[in-house]
Structures are given as structure tokens and as C-alpha cells.
Amino acid sequence: MNNLLSRLVGDKKDWKRMEARAAELPADYRTVYGEMKSYMWRFTAGDGMDIVAILREILDLFETEAANGTSVIEVTGTDLAAFCDARLPEQHDAYRAKLRANLNEVAQKLA
Question: Phi first, then psi: what are they for 7, rounded to 5°?
């Protein structure tokens, strides 16, 4: 029980730190990160730590590239869904096409 409670509290603190880092990104990066986060959460398995790990890697990449002055679309390409899907575990979901289209609308607005 103690181990579970420690893990939950630790995970929550880690998530809050990630969200604080994301809030410091430039506006276009924040927009894309937020939309990617919403998209990817739909494909989580179990406790969601799989998606948290992927989002942490994306956040690291976004911070580095934003600091280098690279636009977010140069990092991700215009197919944001493909960028996310390449990082997600293999999924077979009936809603994937609709979710991909909705996510890619963000890139079209920024391009």
C-alpha cells in the first residue's frame, strides 16, 4: 500500500512538473503539444505511464528545438497524427481516422 501511494504521489508531481515545462514553450509548440496530448491519451493502456513516457520524450524534443529557433511544424511535419502514431504502440482503433483528421487540422491552421 505504501509503495502504491508513493508511486501515485510521485507520478502526480512528475506530471505537474511536465505541465509546468510545457507551459513555458512558445505558443505554437504549446498548441501542438496540447493537441498531441489529447490525441495520445485516447490510446493509453493500463495506468497511462506508457503515454507519459512518450509525452516526456516529445516535451524534451520540443524544448530543445524551440531553443534552437526551429518551428514546431519543422519538427513534426504537417502530419501531426503520423508523428504521434510513430511513437505510439501498435493500435487498432475504429476512431483512428477521425482522430487523425482532427489533429492534423491544427497543423493546417499553423502552416
Answer: -65, -45
Question: What confidence score (pLDDT) does residue 67 get?
Answer: 97
d(CA 28, CA 78): 13
What is the pLDDT confidence band of residue 94, given thresholds at 50, 70 and 90? low
Q: Which residues of 62-90 are buried (b: 16+ CB within 10 A; e: fewer)?
A: beebbeeeeebeebbeeebbebbbeebee
> In sequence order, which ranges of 68-110 are alpha helices (DSSP H)?
72-76, 80-85, 96-110
Q: Which residue has the higher pLDDT, 110 or 33?
A: 33
Q: What is the distance of C-alpha 54 from the center of its chain?
A: 7
